[in-house]
Design a protein that fits this description.
Elements (H helix, E strand, L loop, with lengths): L1 H10 L19 H7 L3 E8 L5 H13 L6 H22 L8 E7 L3 E8 L14 H5 L9 H8 L2 E6 L4 E8 L3
Antiparallel strand pairs: 1-2, 2-3, 3-5, 4-5
Length: 179
């Protein structure tokens, strides 16, 4: 109705319609509503200090919280790799190894999925544009020898979501449970 009122306001009372008026209707599910469609239960929440090597502690803590769930060995390995790499990136690139702001991790489950949420204090910074690593280009010095992290993470997860505001960047790693 608001669209029709705007049309009437725009055209004025003396407008004579000669042909059909086509009004496109666009329906969009708000992101927050879409996320709420899947019911997540928080298993754990913890922080990790920004120090090289602590990504392994984060990985092990996540694995400990997920024990008892129907997760295959191969899925556990994917989760471990993605969590360690994402945590390392959060410490280095998001928090710049600041001792004041630890990396925050949450472990969540739903009926058919596991989500690991990794939050750093790199707000206002988005993830870099994904570039397919090329081993030959890296060896020839045409690509940085670094830059495998995002490639690895995207290869390990079923879904990757990133949210950024002025103070935080949240990376959500979503894994579908098998069977």
């Amino acid at each position: 109705m608001a669209i029709l009122q705007e049309l009437a306001s725009f055209t004025g009372p003396d407008w004579e319609q000669v042909g059909a008026v086509t009004l496109p209707v666009i329906e969009r599910l708000h992101q927050a509503e879409a996320k709420m469609a899947e019911k997540w239960e928080r298993l754990a929440e913890f922080t990790i200090a920004n120090a090289p090597g602590n990504e392994r502690r984060a990985m092990q803590q996540v694995v400990n919280y997920l024990r008892g769930l129907p997760i295959s060995t191969s899925l556990f390995e994917r989760i471990k790799t993605a969590v360690a790499e994402t945590t390392m990136n959060a410490m280095e690139h998001g928090n710049e190894y600041s001792t004041e702001n630890p990396v925050e991790l949450q472990v969540l489950t739903s009926e058919d999925s596991v989500m690991i949420r990794v939050t750093d204090h790199g707000g206002g910074k988005s993830l870099p544009e994904y570039v397919q690593p090329d081993i030959e280009a890296k060896l020839e010095g045409l690509q940085s020898p670094r830059g495998w992290g995002l490639f690895l993470v995207q290869s390990m997860v079923d879904e990757l979501r990133v949210q950024t505001d002025q103070t935080h960047r949240i990376v959500e790693l979503i894994f579908r449970l098998e069977g």
